[in-house]
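ok so i was messing around last nite and threw this chain in just to see what happens. nothing serious, just curious
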Amino acid sequence: MSESRKINVTVWHEYVHEKRNEKVREIYPKGIHGAIADFLSQNPDMNVRTATLEERQHGLTQSVLDSTDVLIWWGHTAHEKVKDDVVQRVYDRVLDGMGLIALHSAHYSKIFKKLMGTTCSLKWREVAEKERIWVVEPGHPIAEGLNEYFEVPNTEMYGERFDIPAPDQLVFISWFEGGEVFRSGCCYNRGKGKVFYFRPGHETFPIYYQSEVQKVITNAVRWAAPTVNSPAIKFGHVQPLEVIPEKQV
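result:
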């Protein structure tokens, strides 16, 4: 991104748990999307807005997506309520250069599964155990400013096998108190767009207030932002750049 141009970020959240569960509402009174938007808005290089499931076209109209550089996605209990035409619209924008950051249970979202081409299934357990997140690619921009590991004191466990394609770059691996490990920070390229999956963020724990988690998401936004004036991708039949002598075949 140009230094003079801000990154336009849209934080999408199904916004269901907060309306049904008092514990979630107490932790995230503005919703998970509001908590994420709050800390991202503190960065002078970002313009941040939110969108939710119940808005018209889930808040992801073509005009909204066309003006979005990076889309952050959090979903859990309403994946199937996301309309397929909206998923296709998001998918097309990712291929055209918009960044996508899928958080926690967004591994089961329609858009993430469409981009991965796999079930994206995994093991899970919710007993408030500790997670230790190891930085396995310390030179990666998403790991900037972190120590070699950080810990989330109470979280839901995700365990391997995580049914995803091998990441283009693996930035984080998690270890859990119960013994499992998990590929928790995965980078992909899809068309002109960049995709980052980041595991932490269960709705009944205040994980999005943790400084290291905020640092990762902030770094990921800058990493996933599209390159300005990148070359257009062309497909189909093309004319040769050089004169090709006639050949008999």
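not much to say yet. The chain is about 25% helix and 30% strand.
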